[in-house]
Amino acid sequence: MCPLPERQHVRLEVYDVLGRRVQVLVDEEQPAGYYTFQFDAGRLASGVYLYRMQTGGTVKTGRMTLVK
Fold first, then answer.
1. Which positions fall inside the Secretion system C-terminal sorting domain (predicted)?
2. Which residues are paired to 17 by β-bridges?
């Protein structure tokens, strides 16, 4: 869950470990609130992926492990 304190543009992307963008989950203005996002990884191979979330002037990154 991601808290958004005020209305902002949100961009949430997923990358493989080579830095290639594999999916854009959100790229739009969002009102304040709490959000969850679903990531459909059905066409991706098992492995490590990175996510990058931009909101206003803040950028957060993290790592996910996909096991099929």
1. 7-61
2. none
The mean-pLDDT minimum among 14-18, 36-40, 46-50 falls in: 36-40
| Residues 24, 11, 23: CA angle, nearest 5 degrees | 10
Mean pLDDT of 4-20: 95
CA nearest neighbour of 20 among 42, 56, 40, 50: 50
Q: What angle do CA 32, 34, 35 make, to 5 degrees?
A: 110
pLDDT at 1 over 70: no
Q: What is the pTM of this model?
A: 0.85
